[in-house]
Amino acid sequence: MAGDQPRFEKLGLVYSQSDRARRAAKELCERYDFVPEDEADAVIALGGDGTMLDTLHNMLDDGNIRPVFGLNLGTVGFLMNRYHGASGLTQRLAEAKAMPILPLRMSVTKQTGETCTYCAINEVSLLRETRQTAKIEISVNGRVRIPELAGDGILLSTPVGSTAYNLSANGPILPLDSNMLALTPISPFRPRRWRGAILPDHSKVRFRVNEPAKRPVAAVADSKEVRDVAEVHIEVAREMEMTLLFDPHQALDERIVAEQFVT
Description:
Blueprint: E1 11-15, H1 19-31, E2 42-47, H2 49-62, E3 68-72, E4 81-82, H3 89-95, E5 97-101, E6 104-110, E7 115-120, E8 123-128, E9 134-140, E10 143-157, H4 165-168, E11 180-190, E12 197-200, E13 205-209, E14 217-221, E15 224-226, E16 229-236, E17 242-246, H5 252-259
Parallel strand pairs: 1-2, 2-3, 3-4, 3-17
Antiparallel strand pairs: 5-17, 6-7, 6-16, 8-10, 8-14, 9-10, 9-13, 10-11, 11-12, 13-16, 14-15
């Protein structure tokens, strides 16, 4: 497998501001030569899953997408590899397994008519802003599937994000190669028996907020929030494919399988 991997001659380094991540960054800089992030063939990210998501979003924003090898110096570190110290990094990169991921594109129309677009690596969620229950119409590929979902909100998750907020909302865990998306209600009240759906990832999903003035709803793409939305369109942004690098025995697809057997 190592011979199939590209050689990463120029490495960039990003890290969180935690004490652990800063100490690890110092250790790595004493052993390896790093270039500015925008000149790198691949990027080393030190921190937790938040650091990884921030790194990927920065790449999406500047249009310079490169493979990322994360080293866990945070808490959960689901998207990261273990940190074993500064030695052996180039060998780990040579042997790393590449995992492609596809983000979602969220296009939002606000109640004012203003529009904006953001990408999400984990999920797009719609959430009520006040004590009033959100009421949301759900359409898939131009067909209204649920005229009115009443509850706290709804989310659409990628396979990568299916073990995050989606799982907490009792949504399904999706294998990375499933080519599926999880559509999961958040504390639904009506329809009472609806627990969500699994959709092909070529689906185009639209959420329309019913009674938006009385029941305001916010749309969130990972950490990017838009308030007082009227309508949200979501689809996979295939032209923005990203790559995460994992140690072969810690690949993300195996972690997602293992997560389903946690008791």
